[in-house]
Amino acid sequence: MTRINLLPWREQLREQRKKSFLQALVLVLIVAGGVVFIAGTVIDGNIDTQNARNARLQEEIRVLDGRIREIRTLQQQRRDLLARMEVIQNLQGNRPVIVRIFDELVQTLADGVFYNSLRVSGTNVALEGVAESNARVSALMRNLDGSDWFENPNLRGLREAPEFGSQASRFTLTVTQTLPRNEREE
Description:
Layout: H1 7-108, E1 113-121, E2 124-131, H2 134-146, E3 150-160, E4 169-177, H3 181-185
Antiparallel strand pairs: 1-2, 2-4, 3-4
């Protein structure tokens, strides 16, 4: 009997299909590699663009931070200048008051009373002096209390001073400085 082999055409067909499959597989791999490469390139480009934007924003933030520091420095200088101006204005405004207070101290001085020292602390005035008698100290305190520029005279101490006379005494008193009504209204 003759043997006919029908397998070679099947084998050829199988080889042909296998070859087509491998070609399609290679083509798909090449296309997939191309797609991955293009996608990677696009993503890298987007990342580079975003990094450039971020760098630009960081630079702008640094510039604005510098301006904020400069503004804060200028505001502090402004506050310092305003404080200095206020101190100068207070000194300018108080200049006539000090002269008026010294004048008032002379006007309220009772006969037979002499001042040895004068200390001013804020609105408190401390007076030390010598009086011929205790009655002279009382007169001085009444004069100070009746003054528009002083209030609340307070006798802190009274000691004998025989070196100035038999009835002489040293006194220490404090008084509060105030502005008269017409001065306060202005």
